[in-house]
Amino acid sequence: MKAIWASSGLSSSDADESGNQLEDEEEILHELHRYDTLLYKRQEITAENLNIMKQTLLQVENTVSDQQNKKLIAEPREEEIAKTIRSFKTEKSPWADGMTTEVLGELWREAKQDVLDFVQFFWETEHLSWK
Fold it and tell me: Which residues are paired to 116 by β-bridges?
């Protein structure tokens, strides 16, 4: 957090705009939020602002490894989809037709291909039609 704070262009001594010492993480987060709000409300992006944003992003560590990222962006497999459907709460209907997840589970053999086609279509197009 200190690296982000320092790259924000604010005081590196953990002080707010008035020079008041910030004592805890909540105060620091509040001041960072205030700074970001001011930064992103500006009408135009100046070279200085862009540089601050770039420097801030460089300070953020990767939290997802390349291997984890590959798994996250991979097309969902049949086993993952089936496992997800089985994990739905019982006696609940996530759809407007009132069909509970138990019904889908019971009809999985018959409905599987339609569900897989639906998920694949959504995955490829990022479009979800409710009609």
Answer: none
Burial 11-25 (b: 16+ CB within 10 A, else e): beebebeeeeebeee
Question: How far apart are alpha carbons 85 and 95 in whole angstroms?
Answer: 13
pTM for this structure?
Answer: 0.44
Return all residues near 83 (Cβ < 8 A) that are at least 6 apart.
none
Q: Do 14 and 54 belong to one domain?
A: yes
CB-CB contact of 49 with 43 (8 Å): no
51 is in which domain, residue-wise?
2-59
> Of 59, 92, 107, which residue is a domain's last?
59
One-letter-per-residue 3-state SS of 76-111: CCHHHHHHHHHHCCCCCCCCCCCCCHHHHHHCHHHH
Question: Each residue of 44-94: pLDDT tens digit?
Answer: 667 787 788 788 877 777 677 888 888 888 989 999 988 888 887 777 666
Under DSSP, the state recorded for 21 is: B
